[in-house]
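Lecture 7 notes: from sequence to structure.

We start with a single chain of 210 residues. Read the sequence below before looking at the structure.
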Amino acid sequence: SLVQLKEMWEDPSVEIAGHGYMHKNTVEDITLGVDALKSHFRDCVRKNEQWGFASPGTGLDLDYYRENKSVLMRHGIVYTRLSLRYGYHPMLNVLSRKISRVLHAPFFYKWAYKDTLMDRVEDGLVYSVPVLASVLVNELMGLVGLAVKRKQLLVLMFHSIVEGEQQRDAWDYPAVKFRELCRRLAEKKKRGLLDVVTTMDAYRMLVKEY
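Now the structure, written as tokens:
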């Protein structure tokens, strides 16, 4: 309900971002979606509120994005979240992903997604690692460990968190594994090894440092 969403809005550990009004990657649809959020939260939105946008299916054409970035900025949309970032060895990354899906070995998972880790934000683009239902907590924690070692940002992208009997497809991450991941992250956070923040907070920190 809208009441529950407003309660989430007031929680500093939660960010509500745009995703397009009709899941399109056009400027019109992106801004319409964020404008709808502004309307829903008009009692909570602060002046000059900043917003993020998660591209549906990472289908946003980057040339189109750069041509229209000024329009997004005028609507307060300061960053756009995409999926993977490919580095110098994209074919090896693809191969590592395929191997990791079979062996579930943290080494291959780290290799497959290491290029998506970030230490700066360029052109307002934030990259993330899509997490499928089959991914083990140990694989994710291996990538977390690499991010900690490199002092880089890791954004994990979950489509949905569901209880086992509600799982419908490969994008529904089991709640039991998600709770275990949260427990292990909380332990590392308690020891001062990492911080868990929203994408907007991470974006602001990287832009400030850069």
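The beta strands are 51-54, 77-81, 125-126, 129-130, 156-157, 160-162, 172-174. Keep this in mind for problem set 3.
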